[in-house]
# Entry
Amino acid sequence: MRDTQFTVQVDWADPALIQRVAKRHRRDGVLKAIGLSALIAAGLMLALLVASLVSSGYHAFTQTHLTLDFEIAADKVSSDTPDKGNYRTIVRDALQAHFPEVTRRADQRDVNKILSNGAQYILRDHVTDSPELIGTTVSLAVPVSDPYDQLAKGLIDPKTPETERRLDDREIAWFQKLEQAGAVSRPLNTGLIVNADSRFPELAGLSGALWGSFYALLVCFLISFPVGIAAGVYLEEFAPKNHYTDFIEVNINNLAAVPSVVFGLLALAVFLGWFGLPRSAPLVGGMTLALMTLPTIIIATRAAVKAVPPSIREAALGIGASRQQVMMHHVLPLAMPGILTGTIIGLAQALGETAPLLLIGMNAFITQAPDSVLDSSTALPTQIFIWADSPERGFVARTSAAICVLLGFLVMMNGVAVYLRKRFERRW
# Structure
């Protein structure tokens, strides 16, 4: 058969053709401009969010302290029971030493409000750890109460009318006297991380929430990771293609889009109602988050397994490997980077979930970090919810700071996902 060739003559100088090409270029430019505008808008919104959180939360990363000389007299603290001493009186006397001119009892009570209520317990723990301090004078920095912390950070303006601020002129003058004496400092607020929750903003920290989130994510990972991989591998490689597996696949895809509050209601009815598991425990929180994460891991596993070239399977089968050996020794190792990426992204999503944890009671007021998955605790998102609902001004900055900490963990987890994918990814 003879090949027939057609030659098309194009007149590139044709005005109509030039106009059509120019119109097509303009449309391409408009599409690019829309995409670039959307990208810039998203970047600006993200920058605005981060800037607002940092501007309102950076105050919480420092804490105002007052350095005082505490006389640990033997008649107030016994060497046999140093944890049961009269530390309230010791703290009061150390502070009153700076204000000998204040003699009225009501004014002395107001002076005592400069220090945080936890100052006596900080001093008690310090002396309990070092009993040899009894009978000596100890210089120690202790936190001030929230109103004076706000004053030191400039959040209370002394120029504001006295009736519109939390501290009157007399109280501000007392604090300024301490500043002039060099007793006031603003070190890094390590208590934000190492302290548990407290009703006093200057003492509240994220330790309990961090440990609660860690235990909950640990339980979530131990359940969802093996179960999700096994389910995804079976559906993709071994399950027969029929109406039953199609029904299961559709429901798995739908479960990935179910609102998280539904999983919370399910956990409330099943884990707490039927099984009688402890309320507010990370075990229940982790199991609830595992239910949410499973669809994501199953979908990621199936996509990663499907992305492995068929030639890998055919070569392994050609040399006599069984289907199980093909999967375990060849396909699964090659699909693991994608599986790990999907798993970490699912865990990162679970870390920020609030609604299901609220429904199982992980928003209780817990003053110490949990020691196991069965102890009552909070989590980072629920701790943020608790602080956001508190009326004290000090919790406003701590709420934003806790959100920054949560975002930091999310960024780290997503960074780990990107690293693992780049580290173990293979190209064919």
The mean pLDDT is 88.
